[in-house]
# Entry
Amino acid sequence: MGRLHLTTDEELRECARQWPGFLEICARDAKGGTVWEGDGVGAAWANTPFPICNGTFLTRPVKDAADLERRMNAAVEFAAGADLPWVFFVCQGWIPEDLRPGLEAAFSQAGLAMITQMMGMVATGILPPRRPPAELQMRRIVTQEQRREATDLQAFAYQFPVELCRAPLEAGALWGETRQFGYLGYSGGTAVTTATTLDIDGRLYVALVATHPSHQRKGYAESVMRHSLEEAARATGLTRSVLHASPAGYPVYEAMGYRPTAQFIGFGPPH
# Structure
């Protein structure tokens, strides 16, 4: 992914807070979800077999190696006995520079392996589209059938088992009672793309962007994401938005005017 721009402490806190905020919404909506905060480390678990929805994270910058080790141990202790897969999401900007080269080795000593990476990105306002919007019928995610269509698109797009992706949905962790602007884009009557925008701490947070592999590279993800953002902005009056991009999504978001602010690395128990 691209080079980081000059990031202020405020923007770093903003990006470091939005992803945990999303996980907390999922956990609070879920049946049996758990939100926990320790000393410098927190967790938001939907308590499902889908590891990304069982997230642990830093709540403030790390001081030194001993501080990092203490927080890793606290996260491992919190997860002990749960018998569920989970991920410790680390904002690299909150790790001292001298510790970053050995970060993977440090987590390995705690029994955790690197399993995912994503880039925090922000935009005060997105750029106009580079091409005409895709011809899609946009529908807000309201019914259980639509929620399942959106969940299945996540599975197809990111090559996860369908039943694994449906687990948070069955727990009520996705598209629950909170104010979410989730949309599906339909082509020929079939749901082919989806995106959801949420109001988190006065920011529009974009998540759950996915397009079916057979319909990618058609501009569908950008179209449904723009629609979701527009509807959320109309309802909330907010314009600044934040997201965490996968390597595949990064070029799309950059072209829309998002700029990178913080690298995030996810560590979890080896499969």
Remarks:
- The mean pLDDT is 94.
- Residues 9-121+263-268 form one domain.
